[in-house]
Amino acid sequence: LEQCMYVCQLKVLCCSWYPDVRRNVVRFSSSANIKRPLTHPFIHLWSQRGNLTMEQSDTNTEKRKHDEPDPPETAGRGKRRRGAGGKKLRPGERYIPPPQKRNPGVSFSQDHFNETSYYVEGGLRKVFPYYFDFKTYCKGRWVGKSLQEVFKSEFRSESIEYYERAAKEGRIRLNETPVEDLSVVLRNNDHMRNTVHRHEPPVIGTPLKILVDDGEVLVVDKPASIPVHPCGRFRHNTVIFILGKEHGISELHTVHRLDRLTSGVLLFARTLETSKKLDQMVRERQLEKEYVCRVEGEFPEGKLICEEPILVVSFKIGLCRVDPKGKECRTVFQRLSFNGKTSVVRCLPLTGRTHQIRVHLQYLGFPILNDPIYSSHAWGTDRGKGGLIGKSDEELLQALVEERRSQEDLHLLAFMDDCIGVTKEAAKVEETDSEADKSGKSFPAQAEDCSEKENSNKASPEEPQSLESTVANSAQKTSPGTQDHLCSECKLVRPDPTKKELIMYLHALRYKGPDFEYSAESPDWAKEDWVETDFS
């Protein structure tokens, strides 16, 4: 019996080579309650003969795997490239490196903040022009098309002659290789880079006021005209970059957003844990938001509740309207004052749809003063009152664009850079703020880089749709007054906007949770005796 027990223990030793037998041997050994050490002479001889123990076996097996020489390449045939799926390249075939793993967002660091600098002129914050790389991977709809075809069909802000000159100067790169001929056909996973001389529109020079910074949350009073995140033509003239450049604050997580032309309370989480906590409160509707606005006409006295559903008309620019097929909405309004022409209204959005306050006030026939979209006559004679438009969604979009084109360039830029695009993914969930801007992207830039609420000073994880969509890590600051011979913007002289043109009369007044409340001062235009001539 003792001899059998030793043999069984020997089998346990051998199971490192025969894993399929291990279960039965261990079961048998356990039932016999064997605890005697392996000291039988036969086992000792076996170990010496093979000069192997379990650990040595595993080590030598590992060594044999690494010591195997690489198979020689066959002469005359294509060289194997890592990332090419093990396939051999045919003569003349382009090597396309595998796509790099992307972070959920691109964190902005001091290197980004140092790309250029600000200067204040005429009460406006301005940015010195700088060279910047825009990057994107080839979209599915581009596969099989030439670069020239893609530029012609989708990137029409510049002429094809411009792109041809830029390619000859090495400013357009494909998989980090300069492209001299735009006839190259795009393939899946192609990585494109476009270097441009970047100009940013000016914003109001009012400093950012930090209301709270306790290590868990950061609350600021955002001036109108400044986007929250890099978007469209804006990068350094954004809240995220101003906080980083002037206050040394980074690694923030957004809790909600405000439209570029909207002012007021803007809340960031300092830590991921706080961000998740606040995000849960948002989803469970535990947060109360209060806005104040000035609308056209005499708003009815008392409380007025609007529950009209809102539908996103265009995900690209974030245009919305009241429609029975839209998502349920509820906003409570209360008039605070009336000066004979315009009314100050308190707004309590109980749901969080894109542009909810602006769309509901348009529907009620009292659009917000200076709203570049929802007070537009492109909606018709009554400007969308009662949901009556009298045109299709496509006709409405075209009318809005034509109205912008008929006005001066500044207003066109304001419309194109309003950072209000909405992704279909973002529309599936309740937004973080009734006036949140869920942004899509386009060339040269129409929307914000961020559409996910937990990505603070990080670029949006949503798929970019242009060469100017993904935030790049490289930029070269140019000296003041430097001009680029290919840059069309350098050849233009644009008049500075007035403060009135950079504001919409909508202000986030208060943000309240179960155990906190943050509020900003009411703006001057919300005073009862304010008249429009007082604002310049």
TrEMBL record:
Span list, region Disordered: 55-108, 429-485, 517-536
Keywords of this entry: RNA-binding
Signal peptide: none
Keyword Signal assigned: no
Biased composition (Basic residues): 77-89
UniProt biased composition (Polar residues): 466-482
Organism: Xenotaenia resolanae
Name the UniProt record assigns to this protein: Pseudouridine synthase RsuA/RluA-like domain-containing protein
Positions with biased composition (Basic and acidic residues): 60-69, 429-440
Domain annotation Pseudouridine synthase RsuA/RluA-like: ranges: 217-362
InterPro entries in alphabetical order: PsdUridine_synth_cat_dom_sf, PsdUridine_synth_RluA-like_CS, PsdUridine_synth_RluC/D, PsdUridine_synth_RsuA/RluA, RluA_PseudoU_synthase
Catalytic reaction annotation: a uridine in mRNA = a pseudouridine in mRNA
KW Cell division (keyword) present: no
